[in-house]
Amino acid sequence: MAGVSVLIPAALFGTEIEVQRRVVKLASRIKQGEDLIAVVTEGGMLDTERTLGHVVIGGCRPRQCEDFHCYQLWKRLTHELYPYQFTPVRPAPLEDQLFAASLTAPWGVLGLIAPENRTWMRPERFERFVTAIHGMWSELCGLGERYFWDRDGEAIWAVPSNLHFVLANLGVPNRKLNSPLPGDGLRGLFTQLPVAS
Hints:
By secondary structure, the protein is mainly alpha-helical. It has helices at 16-31, 36-41, 71-81, 93-102, 106-112, 126-142, 162-169, 174-177, 186-190; strands at residues 7-9, 13-14, 45-47, 55-58, 67-68, 147-149. The chain contains nine helices and six strands; from the N terminus they run ββααβββααααβααα.
């Protein structure tokens, strides 16, 4: 284990099929107006230091593997908000509220970072997304090589994600996005952005 403890809702842990079934019910309640954080955490939290499993960002895991599938909730919420697979130019007010709530917890950011949830990455949200990740980077990076995207055990920077997509759209050159992070980690990239503090 990496030695960094991140709490992730138990509802988002299990086999992919188990988590998919759970989030159908959770997303339905959230669409009806229940609080995202309260609904998702009511089943308790799991400590990543004490719970084995990868943090799945995408790709295909064996059916029997128990992992953290944070992204499944936002994938389902997209379906709930736009059941006919049409994502309008202007988001539904609830989408804005859910996006803001998601940025308050590491597991919310982990859900949004998955490429399958790119529809949540609207240009007007780029800076808020980067700012949230900046504040949580030590936790997210501290999980070590537990991220999964078609390969077991990669660091968060090594997997394709919406972080790369957003940084590219904010002006970070591709050569930097495709290279190892500099010695000061994301800070070196963030200082080049207008949102840097």
